[in-house]
Specification:
Layout (H helix, E strand, L loop, with lengths): L3 E6 L5 H14 L4 E6 L9 E3 L5 E3 L1 E3 L5 H7 L5 E5 L6 H14 L3 E6 L9 H9 L2 E4 L12 E4 L21 E4 L1 H8 L1
Parallel strand pairs: 1-7, 1-8, 2-5, 2-6, 6-7
Antiparallel strand pairs: 3-4, 9-10
Helix pairs in contact: 2-3, 3-4
């Protein structure tokens, strides 16, 4: 039985690495995979899923207007669909991915951020948390050693930013993953 999965975490937790590793495992066994990523995030180049540790694979890009059910149904045979930067999905697209699992019988593995730097859910993440069959947290740690569940965006002097656009492509050096306590302390 195919399922819709959501693997979530903070910035720099290794989500893309896990996605690329899982896709590789399928392909190593002779099974095709379909990799999707948000067109909005082109840090590694258009249509690339890349990890901080240096591995990358080409992917098909999607925009908020992309009908993911139609794209996947027309893509040809595959054993699994992998979606990077899933926080950028729309609510409608999450339903389309649920239909892929339910109606096409394909597992759909989504990887993305749960919350933004203000502690608010991304629209795609909110829908996935509500509707995914299986939720899997990718763990990373705060500087204190506790599990990091939040991320803060900092200015050049290391002060936490409280305002700004929810989405900032690039600028990984401005983000720090923290436990809730240390995030709260920085945001006060």
């Amino acid at each position: 039985m195919a399922k819709l999965y959501f693997h979530y975490s903070t910035m720099n937790a290794g989500k893309s690495t896990l996605l690329l590793q899982a896709s590789y495992n399928y392909r190593e066994r002779g099974m095709q995979t379909l990799l999707l990523t948000a067109a909005l995030d082109d840090r590694a180049g258009p249509g690339q899923i890349a990890s901080r540790i240096g591995i990358a694979e080409p992917a098909t890009t999607f925009t908020p207007e992309t009908d993911l059910f139609a794209l996947i149904a027309d893509a040809g045979p595959c054993a699994c669909v992998f979606v990077d930067e899933a926080q950028f999905l729309t609510e409608i697209q999450v339903w389309q991915l649920a239909r892929v699992a339910d109606d096409l019988g394909l597992p759909v593995m989504c990887y993305g951020l749960r919350v933004d730097f203000r502690g608010n859910l991304f629209p795609g993440s909110a829908a996935l948390l509500a509707w995914a069959d299986d939720l899997r947290e990718v763990r990373t740690i705060c500087h204190c050693g506790r599990k990091a569940t939040m991320v803060v965006r900092q200015d050049e002097e290391g002060r936490a930013l409280h305002d700004g656009a929810q989405v900032q492509i690039g600028g990984n050096e401005t983000y720090v993953s923290l436990c809730r306590r240390h995030w709260r302390e920085m945001m006060e």
